[in-house]
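Provenance and format

Records in this collection were gathered into a single text stream. Each protein contributes a sequence line and a token line. The two records reproduced below are adjacent in the stream.
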Amino acid sequence: MRDGKTIGLALLGIVALIVGAVMLSRCQNAKKYDDARRWLHPALSNSDPFGYAVFDTIMAETLPNGYQVLTADLDSLSPKEWKVRSLLLTECWMLDEDEGKHIEAMVNQGCRVMVVTDCFSEEIADKWKLVQHTSYYFIFEYLKKSLESKRFETLQWSHAGDEPFVCHVPPELMGITLKKDNPRVDYLATIDKNFAVAVKVMSNSKGGALIVVTTPLLLTNYGILDDEISRYVLRLMEQISNRPVTRLQPPPDNPEIRSGHSKSDSRGPSFLSFFLSSAPLRAALYIALAALVLFAVMHARRKQRIIPVKQTPKNHSLEFVQIVGNIYYNRGDYRSLLKMKYTYFAEELRRRLMIDINDHDRESQNMYLLAQRSGMEQESVAQLIQSVQKRLGSDEKVDFSLVQQMIDRMNQILSAI
């Protein structure tokens, strides 16, 4: 038995090590910008480096046609009400197809929309002709090293008609780059002149436009306070500043845009779906389940044991009554014997015939019913009960022969009914 337990514990330990190793490997290959998204979480303050408190203040003082922050869901905005306004989406993550259609409807009505995100769904990427080329990863320690060693990427403003300029950005803050392979779109800012980070995807005669920016960590407090990056941020904002600008942020109790959960599943991913969505974690889960089943089959079988047959307990009520009766008889306490018998007699009549022989108001009716059911004369029955009640109500000494006679007559009545 001890060997079986040892083998089972060793097997569970091996499974735990396998699952731990797979999860550690998964954590080491975490999604890009995990630390930044933690700072962008709505539960934290907007005064964090990658929040929007300073950004919103400067935009409100700088943009000529006004700037405000609106807390609402994207699908709650009516496209017709945004014909002559601009919308800035800075906390987007994995926009789905329905949200893409809603944005296009607003653009078609004349709204200028700037989507700032570093990740697209496949449907949105195909529809807007966006091809991802390079992904940069945000790691805070690497960011500090890049700033100390002055290791930067060169970002160039290349929009036709604007004065070109360059700024130097730490690679950890770059987000993603897009291939410049679509002549139909207008590339606003590029990296090394070959890859874009800001693209005007569409525009129309009503003045509407859709601009996609893939550097979300630059349009924050950090970016607007940096001397070089702030020029890039202000150039981007000029693309939508000819109208009142509204930065849309999702409400705290419904952070669909921030969390990356689609509207079709407002509950978010479950623990099991997280495991099943990854091939290594899924394999580890299957191995663990198979190991547990194997352990249950080999070492957790139920041991059979003999269950002794129990004898039916004997009824000792008669012996008990005899012992109690002998005690009263030997003590000469015949009154208590009579009282106990009368109490039992009255309770049996109440249970069987629903009459109370101690109720003096209905004494005649009770005696008549008792006589009818027992087949005895009413006077004889009444005389017996009255005699017993008289003996119990007085302090006179009760003779044993009289007690025995009264008990026999009460037993006779009970037997008759």
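Adjacent record:
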Amino acid sequence: MARRIAEGLHVDGVQVNVINGNVDRLSLQGDDLCNDDNYVSNRFPDNTNWRQGEDLYQLLTDGNYIASGTTLANFLWVMGYSTLKPNQIAPIMWLKTKMQLRVMLDGALAKQIGSGQLKVVDMERLVPKCFVGKDGQPYSLTKPKEEYSADMDRLKEFFDTKTED
């Protein structure tokens, strides 16, 4: 038994590595990160830049990227800008293109992706749990491609100015 633990134990998608009797690493493997209903998977990882979250919410509501009924508290929770869980949690209704959603998420989650806290594939897996389309159906992301529009320009400009701060 001790040899099995020292080599690492893999149970139901959880990998535990023990060195000298101490847990060295505990991680979820494969799809378990996003598909386990017991795991908090209706939000993105924590982002400590609460002010950016407020500014992004303002841009998205003013520009009709998200439904007007989306509350600030729900948006901040789902996007990881706040750890204060609102009473009512709902997926965010995205009203623009899937490519614009990808650009928004890439910008909003750049810190988490850059630090390795979030992998792009995990971001893509979380999108259907965090965003719905106009029809209320879970949203998914498209492959990265170029899109030219005023709405896309506003998103890119928002994140360009935030990286200069």
